[in-house]
């Protein structure tokens, strides 16, 4: 952090213009800049912090919603028909009969979209109105997020959410460190640290100085790269480099930091998280898109039929009029005009072939199925009171066609809770006695006053060994856990509060605490542990931190007895390589590790060794030399660490459980059985993601896991050997023999996702690729693997299209084909935008239905991009839910959502559409047949009211019941047989073939009803004859209605009373309304509107007519029923033959099995720790000065110490921490008095008397790291500054107590009535920071003259060593400096008054 801009940074950002200029505290400067917008409109370059994710506003709702609705071809078709019906010359039906249903359909969909958008508006308002403290004038005042602008200075307190992308100016932590949690950004819950520049940390010490801050930040334009930032600060004629370590990203949460101050760099939609959120996409289901195609197809068929019928009218018009002179000649305007008008008349008459009622009823079906999801109590999560909710009502059928599931990890698959599950000590397993998760009636840790009661692990035997102190290995095991870590500790309300960089470390240190080995406190070079009631202080000689290459951490300490020990914990793969022997215990431990691995526990191996004094003295200069090396420092340190970490003795293994959510393995297993591919996209590191993959059974031990390097070799070899790739059929056959998984990183995807990225592609580091290309043998091996996996593109694309593809697009396609053949894919260290790009990549090349599920803001873009977005109401906020289509409480509910509700919804809507097309064709195609007998005059066959009410009432309720309540199998059977889900993925229930069968079936029914009735009654006459037009029309209509009613009874799987009720209501409404429209009263009222007088009554009262209707129904039903039974009988044996023949086909030509050369045992190491915390501790950067060390605490004068210390004798054993008070001492600056310097020297780092030997620590005369003093020439580096040498003879070693006789290490109780005065002397303190190991080129920081401390209980902040002021209240004047007593900016002042703190004498 704060490092100089390197050549690589400039090269990586060569396509990014550094034109973003931010001036602090100058809002008018940024308002003058404009950018070109739409047409002549120019928008502001620097946006405000308000966000608006809703689609509509008051002015845009109506036009935009209508624009979106008329993207549906069906709505355009209905609008055309309404316009045609309004023309009297060609109208065959009143225009109002279609206009009102169309208006109703548009209104229903508009209300649905409005309700969804109102939720977005509420979410935006809640976010924009969050409070924050903004610098106004010379004080901080409360304002809303939306009021922030670029260049504003804001103050954030503990647990606050960062409102914009901020450049960190300062914080109350030492050296202006700031700890943040980025779970909402990258899914990681371990703490990350950010640090301000030294110059801002020193100078910006009060609201007054912050208000006067006029620095300018020049950086890259807003972009979506979450982990990259390059810029510079120009201030007071100097330039300072900035990187991502100086930036607080919007959405991150402040942790373990009382207050921090930042300058707004990016606001609103310019922030990195909003750049990753993406836009709202209009989601359309496959059936919806397919219906658009069918509407176009049906419309073209209607056009063709209308044209043919019009042509028939034109040819037969004259002959027909001569024979049938009684027909009125309404179209006598010329042959061509008559042809034109008849064409449109037929088009309107046949427009009912695309029934609007189908679209209206489908909206109610979608709404009903959504309500069933909301009402499902089996998807209700009681602990958090979260029911399932369908936020979108138009995607239910899509839930039954999902092929790819993209899932987040943290908070989605896991609970993000680490629990100490088991341990192995000296080759023996100690598991929990309470396997049934029942805790003993009496708390087994009551004997330990430091126990926090949070440890669920309990083993009586192990606890007995610990308390009896009989087993040295057990003691060293727990001692290692209490010492070897980077955990920080605070004392809050007389309780120890651990602040860990990862949940793993917190779980381990907490377990040691409950077993009596309590981590109490730490300084820069010491760590205090209470071991079974005895306080012991260990001198830290070296702290060797974790990193991704080392996979281990070590601490070299000097014990109170004077011996030197090295404690190491890490991955089994690296620890076992460094053991001094491999005996029976080590072999047994390896078998135990295998057992822990099978249980998917996260393991760490613990080891230690005793280091000889001579060996340490030989190693220490090497370590110091490597620590100060300017080039290749990290590499040199790793080599020095490795030299020390040899010849270890194995202590044991810890097993931590990263708790999965309930039912995750079963859910993933069911989804895989349902032919769904599950991809895990996470921001966590690879080891953690792979461990969770095994835990949720996404990965198995017999899988071949391809990593990024392997995938690159395969993709490269594909380009060279693509001509040798087998056909897809043969390749798929061999794929069944290979269990393959893929694990890749965000860096790999950054090089791959080119065609979908809008931003410049990052410069590819070709070193690894060049090395991979040189491995010709590996290329040949993986090219054969590519052959066996069968990722052939020849069947997917024509040669011409493949030639037109760019090399990047061809590589993307090859990657997707390869990934689609894998049983599992895990993408780790991916950004939110990369998650969305992966989903888009699969949609682009696989044309598959995708579902994304997550619980945090980092998943929003992925949720929006996927065809279906599912949000979990988890611990990371509600942003995922607010942007999702469906909301759930747990991941396991996804199984029921897809396999039950999704499959049912898809099956219901498919049956509904198939049946609706059938009944429409069966009833209304008779109009076409009638045209051949009506002179092609476009005269309707049926009564007008029958046409108007047929689809709205007479046949509506049964089909509505089908769409809402139809079930082929129960929900229990759906969950037991996930294989049933495959039908939706293959579009088996509704496709062109199913549609064609429905049309053919409808044509058959219409032909039977029309021509059978016509042939029976064509030569009859008399009162029982059907030769009149009205009786014939009623018989055909009644036969059609009964035929389609019998069909729906056969299609429905279960007859219920509700279903029978819908049949009775539908048929009853037909009889009642038909009798009403054919009554004498209606005929007398409007004869032209109600021309059919008592026709139905006449038909039903005569037996011949009823026999004709019965015959029509029988001929329509019996052949179809027989055909279905015959097809059902032949279907099962043929399926069995295919299943039996399949294995033999696979085994005809076996391919060689490829397996990775791997160890016998898989490592279960997955420690979520971030590198860098060790440096913060060893440099003292993250530490507030402990009691008695001359930086951040007030130290009394020498006389006062002599008065206080004798009253608090040292009692190192059996201390009671909770009952005693720690000395509340504030450090003082050393005066010119030599006695004060001597006292502070003793308090800082006590060394033993040179006369003592044996168990006494070796004396070292090295300078005090981080707690010495600079000489008067402050320009000298710290290494050259003189530091006081310890007076070793003044503190004799007490062998009986195992510690120093007197000193500031002891736990003393200071009476509250003792007033500790301060010394007026002032001097400057040095922090002696070493550069952080972030880059090979580091920026050395200048020593800090002060430390920012948190506000005390009285509202005052302790001034640093160089700024001691007399204790007093606000408004008092220091008698020493003559300046007002000042204090640190306190966020709790809320802008009441400006307050200042000077860091130079005489300044404010």
From TrEMBL:
Mg(2+) binds at residues 408, 410, 855, 859. P4-ATPase flippase which catalyzes the hydrolysis of ATP coupled to the transport of aminophospholipids from the outer to the inner leaflet of various membranes and ensures the maintenance of asymmetric distribution of phospholipids. Phospholipid translocation also seems to be implicated in vesicle formation and in uptake of lipid signaling molecules. May be responsible for the maintenance of asymmetric distribution of phosphatidylserine (PS) in spermatozoa membranes. Involved in acrosome reactions and binding of spermatozoa to zona pellucida. Residues 23-97 form the P-type ATPase N-terminal domain. It is found in: Cytoplasmic vesicle, Secretory vesicle, Acrosome membrane; Endoplasmic reticulum membrane; Membrane. The gene is Atp8b3. The lineage of its organism: Eukaryota, Metazoa, Chordata, Craniata, Vertebrata. One of its GO terms (molecular function) is ATP hydrolysis activity. Its cofactor is Mg(2+). It is a multi-pass membrane protein. Residues 1218-1244, 1253-1264, 1311-1327, 1371-1380 have a biased composition (Polar residues). Belongs to the cation transport ATPase (P-type) (TC 3.A.3) family. Type IV subfamily. It catalyses: ATP + H2O + phospholipidSide 1 = ADP + phosphate + phospholipidSide 2; a 1,2-diacyl-sn-glycero-3-phospho-L-serine(out) + ATP + H2O = a 1,2-diacyl-sn-glycero-3-phospho-L-serine(in) + ADP + phosphate + H(+). This is Phospholipid-transporting ATPase. It holds the Pfam family PhoLip_ATPase_C. Residues 881-1131 form the P-type ATPase C-terminal domain.
């Amino acid at each position: 952090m704060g490092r100089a801009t390197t050549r690589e940074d400039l090269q990586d950002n060569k396509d990014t213009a550094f034109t973003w200029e931010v001036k602090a505290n100058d809002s008018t400067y940024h308002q003058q800049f404009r950018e070109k917008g739409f047409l002549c409109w120019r928008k502001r370059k620097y946006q405000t912090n308000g966000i608006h994710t809703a689609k509509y506003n008051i002015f845009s709702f109506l036009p935009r919603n209508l624009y979106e609705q008329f993207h549906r071809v069906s709505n355009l078709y209905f609008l055309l028909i309404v316009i045609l019906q309004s023309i009297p010359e060609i109208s065959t039906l009143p225009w109002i009969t279609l206009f009102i249903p169309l208006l109703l359909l548009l209104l229903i969909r508009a209300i649905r979209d409005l309700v969804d958008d109102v939720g977005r508006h509420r979410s935006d308002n809640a976010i924009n109105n969050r409070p924050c403290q903004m610098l106004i004038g010379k004080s901080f005042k409360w304002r809303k997020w939306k009021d922030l602008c670029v260049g504003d200075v804001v103050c954030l307190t503990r647990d606050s959410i960062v409102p914009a992308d901020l450049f960190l100016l300062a914080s109350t932590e030492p050296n202006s460190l700031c700890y943040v949690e980025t779970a909402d950004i990258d899914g990681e819950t371990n703490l990350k640290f950010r640090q301000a520049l030294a110059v801002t940390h020193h100078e910006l010490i009060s609201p007054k100085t912050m208000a006067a801050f006029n620095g300018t930040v020049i950086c890259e334009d807003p972009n979506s790269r979450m982990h990259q930032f390059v810029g510079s600060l120009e201030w007071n004629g100097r330039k300072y480099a900035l990187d991502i370590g100086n930036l607080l990203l919007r959405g991150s949460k402040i942790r373990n930091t009382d207050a921090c101050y930042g300058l707004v760099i990016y606001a609103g939609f310019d922030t990195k998280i909003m750049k990753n959120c993406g836009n709202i996409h209009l989601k359309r289901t496959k059936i919806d898109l397919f219906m658009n195609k069918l509407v176009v197809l049906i419309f073209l068929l209607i056009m063709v039929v209308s044209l043919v019928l019009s042509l028939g009218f034109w040819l037969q018009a004259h002959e027909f009029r001569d024979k049938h002179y009684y027909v009125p000649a309404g179209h006598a305007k010329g042959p061509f005009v008559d042809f034109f008008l008849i064409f449109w008349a037929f088009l309107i008459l046949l427009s009912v072939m695309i029934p609007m009622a189908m679209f209206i009823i489908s909206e109610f079906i979608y709404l009903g199925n959504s309500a069933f999801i909301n009402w499902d109590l089996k998807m209700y999560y009681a602990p958090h009171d979260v029911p399932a909710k369908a936020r979108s009502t138009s995607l239910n059928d899509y839930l039954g066609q999902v092929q790819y599931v993209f899932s987040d990890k943290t908070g989605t698959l896991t609970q993000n809770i680490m629990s100490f599950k088991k341990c192995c000590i000296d080759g023996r397993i100690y598991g929990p006695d309470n396997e049934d998760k029942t805790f003993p009636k009496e708390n087994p840790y009551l004997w330990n006053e430091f126990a926090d009661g949070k440890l669920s692990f309990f083993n009586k035997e192990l606890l007995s060994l610990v308390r009896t102190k009989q087993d040295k290995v057990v003691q060293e095991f727990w001692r290692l856990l209490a010492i070897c870590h980077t955990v920080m500790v605070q004392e809050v309300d007389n309780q120890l509060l651990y602040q860990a960089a990862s949940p793993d470390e917190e779980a381990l240190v907490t377990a040691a605490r409950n077993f009596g080995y309590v981590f109490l406190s730490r300084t820069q070079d010491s760590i205090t542990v209470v071991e079974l009631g005895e306080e012991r202080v260990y001198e830290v000689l070296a702290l060797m931190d974790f990193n991704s290459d080392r996979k281990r951490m070590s601490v070299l300490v000097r014990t109170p007895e004077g011996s030197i020990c090295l404690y190491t914990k890490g991955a089994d793969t690296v620890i076992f390589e460094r053991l001094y022997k491999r005996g029976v215990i080590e072999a047994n431990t390896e078998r135990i590790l295998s057992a822990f691995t099978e249980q998917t526990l996260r393991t760490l191996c613990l080891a230690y060794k005793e280091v000889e004094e001579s060996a340490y003295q030989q190693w220490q200069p090497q370590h110091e030399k490597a620590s100060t090396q300017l080039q290749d420092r990290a590499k040199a340190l790793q080599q020095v660490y490795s030299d020390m970490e040899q010849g270890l003795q194995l202590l044991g293994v810890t097993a931590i459980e990263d708790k999965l959510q309930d039912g995750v393995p079963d859910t993933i297993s069911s989804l895989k059985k349902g032919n769904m591919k599950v991809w895990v996209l996470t921001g966590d590191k690879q080891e953690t993601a792979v461990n969770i993959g095994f835990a949720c059974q996404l990965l198995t031990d017999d899988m071949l896991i391809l990593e990024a390097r392997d995938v690159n070799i395969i993709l490269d070899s594909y380009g060279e050997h693509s001509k040798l790739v087998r056909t897809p059929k043969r390749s798929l056959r061999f794929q069944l023999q290979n269990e393959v998984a893929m694990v890749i990183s965000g860096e790999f995807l950054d090089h791959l996702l080119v065609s979908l990225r809008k931003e410049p592609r990052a410069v590819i580091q070709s070193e690894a690729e060049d090395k991979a290309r040189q491995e010709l043998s590996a290329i040949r091996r993986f090219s054969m693997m590519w052959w066996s996996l069968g990722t052939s593109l020849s069947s997917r694309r024509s040669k011409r299209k493949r030639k037109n593809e760019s090399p990047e697009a061809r590589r993307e396609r090859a990657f997707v084909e390869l990934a689609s053949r894998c049983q599992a894919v895990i993408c780790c260290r991916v950004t939110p935008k990369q998650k969305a790009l992966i989903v888009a990549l699969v949609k682009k090349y696989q044309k598959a239905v995708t579902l994304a599920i997550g619980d945090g803001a980092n998943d929003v873009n992925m949720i929006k991009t996927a065809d279906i977005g599912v949000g979990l109401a988890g611990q990371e906020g509600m942003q995922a839910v607010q942007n999702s289509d469906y909301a759930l409480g747990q991941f396991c509910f996804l199984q029921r959502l897809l396999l039950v509700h999704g499959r049912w919804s898809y099956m219901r809507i498919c049956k509904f559409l198939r049946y609706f097309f059938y009944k429409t064709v069966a009833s209304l195609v008779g109009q076409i047949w009638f045209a051949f007998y009506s002179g092609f005059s476009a005269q309707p066959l049926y009564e007008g009211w029958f046409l108007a009410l047929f689809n709205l009432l007479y046949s509506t309720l049964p089909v509505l019941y089908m769409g809402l309540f139809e079930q082929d199998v129960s929900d229990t059977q759906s969950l037991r047989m996930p294989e049933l889900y495959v039908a939706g993925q293959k579009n088996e229930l509704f496709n062109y073939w199913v549609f064609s069968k429905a049309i053919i079936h409808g044509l058959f029914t219409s032909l039977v009803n029309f021509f059978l009735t016509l042939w029976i009654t064509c030569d009859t006459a008399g009162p029982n004859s059907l030769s009149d037009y009205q009786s014939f029309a009623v018989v055909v209509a009644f036969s059609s209605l009964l035929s389609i009613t019998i069909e729906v009874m056969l299609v429905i799987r279960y007859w219920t009373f509700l279903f029978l009720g819908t049949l009775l209501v539908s048929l009853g409404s037909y009889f009642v309304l038909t009798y009403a429209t054919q009554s004498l009263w209606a005929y007398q009222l409007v004869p032209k509107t109600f021309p059919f007088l008592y026709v139905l009554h006449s038909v039903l009262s005569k037996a011949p007519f009823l026999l004709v209707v019965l015959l029509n129904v029988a001929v329509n039903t019996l052949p179809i029923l027989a055909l279905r039974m015959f097809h059902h009988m032949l279907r099962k044996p043929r399926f069995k033959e295919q299943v039996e023949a399949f294995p033999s086909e696979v085994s005809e030509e076996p391919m060689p099995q490829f397996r990775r050369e791997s160890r016998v045992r898989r490592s279960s190491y997955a420690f979520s720790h971030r590198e860098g915390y060790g440096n913060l501790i060893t440099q003292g950067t993250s530490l507030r000065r402990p009691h008695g060390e001359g930086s951040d605490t007030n130290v009394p004068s020498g006389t006062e110490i002599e008065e206080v210390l004798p009253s608090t004798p040292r009692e190192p054993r059996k201390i009671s921490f909770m009952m005693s008070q720690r000395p509340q001492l504030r450090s003082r600056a050393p005066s010119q008095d030599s006695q004060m310097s001597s006292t502070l020297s003793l308090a800082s780092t006590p060394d033993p008397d040179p006369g003592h030997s044996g168990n006494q620590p070796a004396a070292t005369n090295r300078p005090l790291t981080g707690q010495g003093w600079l000489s008067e020439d402050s320009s000298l580096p710290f290494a050259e500054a003189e530091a006081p040498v310890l007076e070793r003879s003044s503190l004799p070693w007490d062998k009986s107590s195992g510690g120093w006789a007197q000193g500031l290490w002891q736990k003393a109780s200071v009476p509250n009535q003792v007033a500790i005065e301060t010394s007026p002397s002032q001097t400057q303190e040095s922090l002696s920071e070493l550069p952080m190991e972030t880059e090979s080129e580091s920026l050395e920081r200048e020593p800090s003259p002060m430390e920012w401390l948190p506000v005390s209980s009285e509202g005052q902040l302790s001034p640093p060593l160089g700024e001691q002021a007399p204790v007093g209240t606000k408004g008092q004047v220091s008698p020493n400096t003559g300046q007002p007593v000042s204090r640190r900016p306190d966020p709790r002042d809320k802008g009441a008054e400006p307050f200042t703190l000077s860091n130079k004498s005489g300044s404010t």
